[in-house]
């Protein structure tokens, strides 16, 4: 196995190797952690959106910096979906997350995979590639939000 | 200039090259962004704290993964301290941030510098080194919180 791949796998394993519950002293901390991580991730995804939509000038280096941040952040929130922490208010975690956990996890992985493609697209220095990859990430976000977020 | 350094500087420049206000549609978004970023950062710093304090077994790879996350996250919240957004409640941003901005910015940089040392210490595979660097980061956090967070 090559060293960069090994390093990436080690990092990924480390990020998931503590039992989720052990990361949080209280269930409320887990909820706040996942909501905070999603909010910061959405902000940086939105900065790419501003370029894609022509609201700010296209800058490949800024797009890549933000895409790489989104990629890092995309790994974090899911540890916060610990058992027994669904919400009821609009925009909070729906009970379906825990009754259809495999589907939820597959949706999370789909998003992470599309974000990895967004990073690659951002490095092609081509706005059309960025737009296409941005759209696919957006679809992956929406797919999970439609099914697993209280409306 | 070597390539990794150049890449790091490009990334750092990109993270700060949009005017902060342009990143946020509303002042409340800036407040939520900085609070969310701080919360996620504190969680990952706390995972290292759990090792340092002997509450979970020492694992150098997990320490490094979390230290690197803290290093990435340590760059983010400060864009959210936009003009005109102090708080009044305990734990929120004190008005002094905007009246002594140079001191605040120096405090932020001190924390980021100590976090960089924490990453290096985590890679020595030596718990005593990790403990010492963890303590210095904690002091840097406290230094700013004492002066710039509403008590």
Describe this structure as you would to a colleague.
The structure is a homodimer of 151-residue chains. Chain A has one domain: Cytochrome c/b562 (Four Helix Bundle (Hemerythrin (Met), subunit A), Up-down Bundle). The first copy, chain A, is 68% helix and 0% strand. Chain A is an all-alpha fold. Chain A is elongated. The first copy, chain A, has six helices and no strands. Chain A binds chain B through residues 10-11, 13-15, 17-18, 22-24, 29, 32-33, 35-37, 39-40, 43, 47, 56, 59, 61-62, 64-66, 68-69, 72, 76, and chain B through 10-11, 13-15, 17-18, 22-24, 29, 32-33, 35-37, 39-40, 43, 47, 56, 59, 61-62, 64-66, 68-69, 72, 76.
CATH architecture of chain A: Up-down Bundle
What do we call the CATH homologous superfamily of chain A? Cytochrome c/b562
Biggest sheet descriptor of chain A = none
Helix percent band of chain A: 55-70%
Low-pLDDT parts of chain A are 5-18
How many helical stretches of chain A? 6
Written as H for each helix and E for each strand, in order along the chain, the element string of chain A is HHHHHH
> Which fold does the CATH topology of chain A refer to?
Four Helix Bundle (Hemerythrin (Met), subunit A)
CATH class of chain A: Mainly Alpha
The number of domains of chain A: 1
Regarding quaternary structure, what we see is homodimer
Sheet-strand content of chain A, in percent, reads under 5%
* Total strands of chain A: 0
> What does the overall shape of chain A look like?
elongated
